[in-house]
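Record type: monomer structure entry
Structure origin: computed from sequence
Chain ID: A
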Amino acid sequence: MPDKYTAVWVSHTSISDFLQCPRAYYLKNVYKDPKTSHKVQLMSPPLALGQVVHSVLESLSVLPGTERFKESLITKFERSWQAVSGKRGGFFDESTEQQYKDRGKEMLLKVMENPGPLLGLAVKIKEDLPHYWLSKEDNIILCGKIDWLEYLKETDSVNIIDFKTSKSQENDGSLQLPIYHLLVHNCQHRVVSRASYWYLGLDQIVEKALPDLESAHEQILKIAKEIKLARQLERFKCPHGEDGCFACKPFEKIIQGEAEFVGENDYRQDIYVMQRSKTELSKEENSELI
């Protein structure tokens, strides 16, 4: 019998972690600090920026269209930014923090000037974390949060919109849309008729072709089974060998005591920070595509 408490839960983020580096997947999604029994998270400027901008925009969906822009998004951003200011957001100097903060404000100013679908009706999935049984037989659940579901009244359907704060565009081989199409199809009753990426820094909404649901299911289930097998065998090796790669090495440093603990987040994860070069941050941002 399937059991959600023993099931393997997979998401776009965890699947991307596994495909990039199984060791990084383990350190981000399985490992718990033996002292606290908490998972660990490495906070960084790109992640802090993405979290705050997403939280501001996603908060609009619960408001009527006429109420969404009564309070300036910049005011909301300033209020939310306080939670990631300084080292808690991975910022080790005021200059770097200001650069990322200015980027966030610029994105939200563009949204305020051209709110587009954010003025219309939106659909909210009831669960805080949408999820469904990808395979009851294999005891695997697919989960994930959708940034925005635009309601299309003329067809009684929805448009999946994903906000992007990174500087690079999502690559065509990304599994994000197949996963989001599966989630939205299985977690609410309306047909998905469109999907779009909203590149906030470019003020550009790019409509994408909808992935075939059957093919998406087969593709995601295959990877999820590989993840389940790796967990059963406790086999999580970095493809670059013992030297590690850019995805797993920062987390290895946390375990080795080379990162600074700055507190817990709302998910009871231990948050760590460390100084990173501009090259490292750029590589992270381009790979995460937050």
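Annotation 1: The CA atoms of residues 103 and 201 lie 8 Å apart.
Annotation 2: The first helix runs from residue 12 to 20.
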